[in-house]
Amino acid sequence: MVTVTECTTLGKGRLRFHLDNGTELVLYRGEAKQFRMREGSTLSDEEEHQLIYEVVGKRAKRRTMHLLEQMDRTEQQLREKLKQGGYPQACIDLALEYVKSFHYVDDYRYACTYINYRQDRMSRYQLKVKLYGKGVPGEVIDRALEECYEGDEQEQIIRLLEKKKFDAQNSDQKEFTRVYQYLMRRGFRSNDVLHAMKSKQ
């Protein structure tokens, strides 16, 4: 049995409940009324299970499906969105298990798609940093890069040098260093950068 220790009114007819076991739930007024929830009220273990897995859990599944309809997302991005929506961890896990069972969420597929669309203008390093920032696990990123990356980094460097209007013959050491550091910040390997820059002589 758990006790409601606090109830806070939110917008759009929603209420946030704090339970004495540490769980937080966001419910609509009708749902709260159905379970007779208010500060000081109690829930049996069966009622708590029903509330989390059948009421809020089902809503978390629908919310996750809606998020995926808008755009492809990583598992971590979905978890963050659901957490921001006030869903408890048990409901988040339930929703992610549901969509993963249908392969609606697949971090490897997401990484490969991301790489395929951006490999012509981003280095391997840049892609790795971007995917890591989106919550894709490192081992998944490495496998996706190994199997999906077909970009020509030398060609990318040359295009960037042309965009910068770099001319090795007419550039002093300061200009050479500035362009070199710019390319290094974009994640290209030093040997590739120097080779491309010297080829512009």
TrEMBL record:
Residues in the signal sequence: none
Location in the cell: Cytoplasm
Cytoplasm in keyword set: yes
UniProt domain RecX second three-helical: residue ranges: 106-145
InterPro entries, per the entry: RecX_HTH_1st, RecX_HTH_2nd, RecX_HTH_3rd, Regulatory_RecX, WH-like_DNA-bd_sf
A biological process term (GO) from this entry: regulation of DNA repair
Stored Pfam families: RecX_HTH1, RecX_HTH2, RecX_HTH3
Entry function: Modulates RecA activity.
Name this protein carries in UniProt: Regulatory protein RecX
Organism annotation: Roseburia faecis
Encoding gene, per UniProt annotation: recX
